[in-house]
């Protein structure tokens, strides 16, 4: 009887430990702010949370980055992203390799 109780405790502890461990994989993040600068290969976003004297973060843009203006998906050139425009950027921090910008969202134009 005592062995069964000990075995049950061991199984519960192991199961809890396995279920509670953090997943070591890609880390997706959403960044909201305004465009501080934009180039064909990267975009700089001011979030308002930057420390004094620290430049806003740059996010890479590549051929796989989806660009949406309103509900319409378009190319980077078609989107015509402008300075100080509100923007939402979805980035992924893979376990290996550089950060990847998965999607850039800007408001529809009238």
Give short descriptive properties of this protein.
110 residues, alpha+beta, 7-stranded mixed beta sheet, 7 strands
Provide a descriptive summary of the structure in words.
This protein has 110 residues and is an alpha+beta fold. It has a single domain (25-106), classed as OB fold (Dihydrolipoamide Acetyltransferase, E2P) (Beta Barrel). It has helices at 2-20, 76-79; strands at 27-39, 42-46, 57-60, 66-69, 72-74, 86-93, 100-106. Strands 3-2-1-6-7-4-5 form a 7-stranded mixed β-sheet. The longest helix has 19 residues, at 2-20. It is elongated and about 70 Å long. The model has no long low-confidence stretch (mean pLDDT 86).
Break the fold down into its secondary structure elements and pairings.
Layout lengths: L1 H19 L6 E13 L2 E5 L10 E4 L5 E4 L2 E3 L1 H4 L6 E8 L6 E7 L4
Parallel strand pairs: 4-7
Antiparallel strand pairs: 1-2, 1-6, 2-3, 4-5, 6-7
CATH architecture: Beta Barrel
> Helical element count?
2
Helix and strand sequence: HEEEEEHEE
Helix proportion range: 10-25%
Number of strands: 7
Write the CATH fold name: OB fold (Dihydrolipoamide Acetyltransferase, E2P)
Percent strand: 35-45%
Biggest sheet record: 7 strands, mixed
Structural class: alpha+beta
Shape descriptor reads elongated
Distance between the termini: 74 Å
In total, the number of domains comes to 1
For the record, the CATH class is Mainly Beta
Uncertain segments are none
Strand order of the largest sheet: 3-2-1-6-7-4-5
- Rounded to an integer, what's the Rg over CA atoms? 22 Å
Output mean pLDDT: 86
